[in-house]
Amino acid sequence: MGWVESLQKAIEYMEEHLLEDISIESIAEQANSSAFQFQRVFALLTDTSVGEYIRRRRLTLVAQELINTDRKIIDLAYTYGYDTPEAFSKAFRKQHGVSPSEVRKNIGKLNSYNRLVIQVSLKGAEPMKYNIVERAGFSVVGIKREFSLVNGANLKGIPQMWDEVNADGTDDKLFKLNNGEIKGVVGVCVDTRGATSSQHMDYWIATEYVGETPIGLLSLEIPASKWAIFEVHGPMPDTMQNVWKQIFSEWFPSNSYEHAGTPELEVYSNADPTSLDLYSEIWIPVK
Fold this sequence. Notes:
Elements: H1 3-16, H2 24-30, H3 35-46, H4 50-68, H5 73-79, H6 85-96, H7 100-104, E1 130-135, E2 138-148, H8 153-168, H9 170-177, E3 185-191, E4 200-208, E5 218-222, E6 225-233, H10 238-251, E7 264-268, E8 279-286
Antiparallel strand pairs: 1-6, 2-4, 2-5, 3-4, 3-7, 6-8, 7-8
Protein name: Transcriptional regulator
Pfam family, one: Cass2
InterPro entries: AraC_E-bd, Cass2, Homeodomain-like_sf, HTH_AraC, HTH_AraC-typ_CS, MarA-like, Reg_factor_effector_dom_sf, Tscrpt_reg_AraC-type_HTH
């Protein structure tokens, strides 16, 4: 089953169980994916987190019930997963800009978030340049932090981590240490399921290095793999994110490769990150 079909199956599952307390693990299972990988791909393709999608859909549906039924607001609050009327009213107003009681009086307009439909977008005018290589395992050294995947916290925290690394000189240190085949500094996403929880991930800013781990840094072993290496041309961060979207919405659905489930790499040079000619890479382990 391809990524698009898998994601659509998972979306259908969410919609069928929208009023239940479903886990990210059960949702990801519908897509034959780990919770970690599913949340990352879902956020890449939809620009929202799984939790935010469910919240928006619930508040869209409860608004329809407010208009079309006479059910008490307190009963609707409990049905749609809110412990108190106050919590429900706060969330409702945040999405719709009006209170539940105002909707009952036909005051204001509502914001409707419709059911997602994932579609493949094939754009022959925008070719993707990549090559397939096989490498033995290798080591990277650098720093790591744990990020929550809940409500897209990782999407906010990782850019902040890069800002700090660039400001405190760690980035320059890693470029100087680099002595492996991959030239540059890498960002590495690591699934930590089994170590902490499927709701968290480790993110590394590191560089390929052969030798004893330098003081103050940590070492990570990247397993042997077949890699699909994609070229990225243009300024950060938008160009990198656009290529990620292309990989999962266009490249995977059009190829026989599957994600191998091991860490992915983003490779950055020390050139001006705002340059239109900036060259970077995305390395994805495939099978």
